[in-house]
Amino acid sequence: MLSPNPMLVDLDRANDTMRRHGIDLLVGSRDSNLYYLSGHAPDSVLNHFFDTWSAALLPHNQDPPPCLITSEYDVAYLATHPTWMPEVRLFGSEWSSAAGLLKKISDGEGVHTELRPRLAQIYQQSLSTREASLAKGIAAYLSQYFSSGPITVGFDDMRLAESVRQEFGAGLTVVDALWHFREIRLAKTTNEIALLKQAALINEAGLEAAMKGVAEGNRWSQMVDLYRLELARTGAKPSGERGMLFTAGPDGGFVMDHEYVESQHFSVGDAVILDAISSYRLYHADIARTAVIGEPNQRQSLIYDTLLEILVEAEDAAKAGVHTSDLTDRAVKTLEGHGLERALATLIFHPIGLRVFDYGSLEGTANGWVLESGTVLNFEVFYRDPDVGGIHVEDSIVISQTGNSRLGALDRALYMF
């Protein structure tokens, strides 16, 4: 019955980040940070019925105990997907239907099911700490464990931070910890890499399904629908409306309105971008391949061969301690050495994880960063040619001290249909 979600957070990295920034406690309430800290991701959270439904509290050095605070509506999810966090607190009201039903179950009323003993146990254990709202629940936790002195708490949602400050009163300093969370998440744990690999393989299967719709005369929507259907079959979701970039022909270098794009038909000679972006259990996958309807012309072949050379060179050199800007500089030399224009190329490294672009700092988004072991990395190698359209190739790799490895295994040839 029990299927606990994997522990994703890197506690050592979190403790080091909190120490360096003078933070006593982190509060993650956004979907990604809540899941990262606690493994809690029920539909009640992901559907965003309310702006803030749950929060995971991670103290520096895990003293006092880490705590998940969520609605009593989520007790059934907690019964089947327990968090690793040692303390769970609920918020709610005596008059709510969820509380009413839980009380009946706790009293032994109604039919017996395999879930009900666990539901009753969670409900009974929560009664002594239950509060009327999430903000009150966080404030009560702080009052119990941090009453002896001032405390600095990092929030990823400053609206929730202000509500907690009003409840707690003097002695609480709140800081915006959104980028601190991303700094912690930049290097992935073993469990995260396992999820990212599964996401990548699902996404590759989706891209291969999409390729079955690429043929002269077909509507572009046939390709996109096949991709979506394969993701749905495996429990993944397309990012955005359709999984990002699926375009073809001379205008394929642009991100266009999806309704316009999907109304078009494939023609002989079209270069087709298959840039597939999806998510599985909140972790993202991003892969790109290029196909041609018919035989590629000389320009298409030159561009694709150059981009693939650039990607392979970068992967051969990518390891912990290397700065991404150095890899970009090398890529530019190769590009220009083949007579292609820098102004028409996208050459961007981006970490991938709970976000598609999961950068660890603002500086990294603009100037690149030094690679760390455990980072999962994509290199966007994209050329926008005014004559043949877009040409693109991209994969996800895991950085180690000695090099890297690909998450997926899909062939990198220029596909022809």
Report on the structure:
With 417 residues, the protein is α+β, with helices and mostly antiparallel strands. It folds into 2 domains: 11-185, Creatine Amidinohydrolase, Chain A, domain 1, CATH 3.40.350.10; 190-416, Creatine Amidinohydrolase, CATH 3.90.230.10. The protein has helices at residues 11-21, 31-38, 43-46, 75-80, 97-106, 116-126, 134-145, 158-168, 178-185, 190-211, 220-234, 258-261, 298-317, 324-337, 362-367, and strands at residues 25-28, 55-59, 67-71, 87-91, 151-155, 172-176, 237-238, 244-248, 271-280, 283-292, 345-351, 376-385, 389-393, 396-399, 404-406, 415-416. It has a 6-stranded mixed sheet with strand order 4-3-2-1-5-6, sandwiched between helices. Strands 7, 8, 9, 10 and 16 form a 5-stranded mixed sheet that branches. A hairpin with a 2-residue loop joins strand 9 (271-280) and strand 10. The longest helix is centred in the middle third of the chain and has 22 residues, at 190-211. The radius of gyration is 25 Å and the shape is globular. The two termini are 47 Å apart. The relative contact order is 0.11. The model has no long low-confidence stretch (mean pLDDT 94).
